[in-house]
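Please go through the sequence line and token line underneath and see whether the fold suits the sequence. See right below:
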Amino acid sequence: MTETAAREQVLEAGLRLVREGLVERTWGNISARVSDTEFVITPSGLAYEDLGPERLAVVNIADGSHRGPLKPSSEKGIHADAYRLRPEVRFVIHTHQFWASVAGTAGRALTGFIHPDLGKRVPCAAYGLPGTQTLRRAVEAEEAAWPDCRAFLLRSHGALCLGRDMEDAFAAARALEEVCEARVRDQMGDPKPFPVPPDLGFSRRQGDAFRLVRRGRSRLYPIDSGSLPRAAALHAAGCQITGGEGRVVLRSDGALRSAGTVRTAPYPGFPTDAQAVLMAALLRSRGATVFVENMFENRYRHVDELRRMGADISVADRVAVVTGVPRLYGADVAAVRSTDLRGGAALLVAGLIADGTTRIGDIHHIQRGYEDPVRDLGLLGARIALEEE
């Protein structure tokens, strides 16, 4: 394939990944072999819709050197290894497709099936932080051990699909999604429908109570803290919660664990407004927690900022997988706009459990939703202050 043709196919593949829902935002990466020594690959951090052929990078398979105006994807080493180990491979796609991302969190290979585009096995590479040698070595080991496999799960980091050409690689990605969906659904069983709340008039939540306005009368209805879906998630994470008579008592030794799977839903299900804050609280937990956002789109806009602090979060469509890390690092995010109320609150929580100092700018979203977070968190022992510009 000529370099010009390779560039055009990589651009076409990027748009197809977006259309078919196999990637989110700027995540994932695509490459095409140009020769025995080079391949073309997408750059880091650019939306596929904004790419042009001149913005792609050409990478040397042997030493990883590159030419072009932009830095190549941080996963270029994984692509290079695929071309080096598999001479027949001419197209590589690293996706963050929905079902494969969910299946990959288990950290186990897929077996017990036969598919014409996948064969009988999909290996799973051990976890490594994106762009690291640890991840590269893990993927390389699986490719070397299973030379006939065309798709690989990357634990908590999507999937890698190989092909003789672009169509072949896409066929592997689609087949992988089909197999993973069937496997995950089989393990999860049929979801139970959420109960429909009765018609209680107009209500507004006030903390852990509801203010009901009906027929011209207003009344406050406290909710038993132990019955709250949020309380159930915190219980699963290792907290002890008691309450009653308008108060809630939470005890924790700070060593949180996975909360399992958290699915947002209408009341009385887990509230979507609490998703971001709980996610931040679990960034240093033991194990992995799966969040499924069923209420709204674009509810993971806080993820990129949390990643800047060292969080390990993978997102595919409405699913986010949070794998606990030993440490978070303070970050100056003042130059980045907090785009929503709950995401801003998540940054506050993450900053409190991170090492060092975190500065959060553009905080008007937080201030419109919380009366005085500096005062309230300070009463709990937080070292937090509001700086004047």
